[in-house]
Amino acid sequence: MAPASSCHTDSMAFDAPIVGNTHQIRTIEAFDADEHAHNLTDWEQSYDQITRGHFHGALAELHLPQMQVFRERTSQAVRQSCCVWPDAFWFGLPEQSDQTRINGRLAGEHAIMVRPGACEFELVTPPDYAIYGIVIRREALWQAAELSGCRIDWAQLTGTEVMHVDSSSRASLLQTLSGLLQDGGGCTDRDLRQQVLVNALLALLDTRAVDSAVSGSFQRRQRIVAKARDLVLAHHDQAITVPRLCEQLFVSRRTLQYCFEDVLGMSPMQYLRLIRLNGARRHLRQASSKSLTVQDVAADWGFWHFSQFSSDYRKLFGQSPSESLRQRSH
Prior knowledge:
This is Transcriptional regulator, AraC family. It holds the Pfam family HTH_18. One of its GO terms (molecular function) is sequence-specific DNA binding. The chain is of the alpha+beta class. The chain folds into two domains: 26-210, Sandwich (Jelly Rolls), CATH 2.60.120; 216-326, Homeodomain-like (Arc Repressor Mutant, subunit A), CATH 1.10.10. It contains twelve helices and 13 strands. The strands form two sheets. It has an eight-stranded antiparallel beta sheet. Strand 3 and strand 4 form a beta hairpin. Helix 4 runs antiparallel to helix 5 and helix 6 packs across helix 8 (253-263). It starts with 25 loop residues before the first strand and ends with a helix. Mean pLDDT is 86; it is low at 1-5 and 9-14.
């Protein structure tokens, strides 16, 4: 997996986005984190559940001529790998932003997150979380900014992750988004709905203050965490230990602990276990062979003590591994 915020090249295959093909508000629920990740149209995503209990996700999504608008709810804390279609910008407005991490950085209050299309980024979100999202084609945003006289520093907008904005402008945009996703904002004209939303977005961008650049030391911590994840996934049939991670990454145990706590808000041991449990769940739910057993999957993800695996699995996901296997996709 590519490190967080790495951008795809033009050779990467993306389906053509369907923005503009429908005018209905689409609502969908899911009871598995990774299943929920795939419900958002034209995104490349995978989710790992972090906190314990049954998962419930809800999505309300609306497509306008040059935009995609959505509200997403998740009941459990989730680690998200996200990438939106090219030639677009994503703007994310959490309803409660103080506990959101984007590429390891806390967004803070009165913030809006932004990422360009075809550029992978990572979110870590808390339980009982809701976020509004806007994806707008770059050309449409540029034209609207020109018409309104709003000057946008495109290089800065592409390079930043967090913008601190005027609280009243942010509240106004959230109110506009809420209305659109409940009843279309009382308007059936898609072009007019888009114009209203773009105007609210531009008003917010006019008040923005871009977060300071990421320090070199924080970038190093991000790279260490990304390399640790790559190592775990590349050798998922082995129970990789913290000492082995330290040896492979050429860091001390204290440094590794600090990197994980600073970037993800958890210890390396917690992270290793969560990644492997989520990998096992994905394997169980996507299994195509009828002869596959829970024991096979446990072993394939480095869990050799089956009773402990079953207990940890049930605590995290609120169901047994065998129940997940019975719910697999067909």
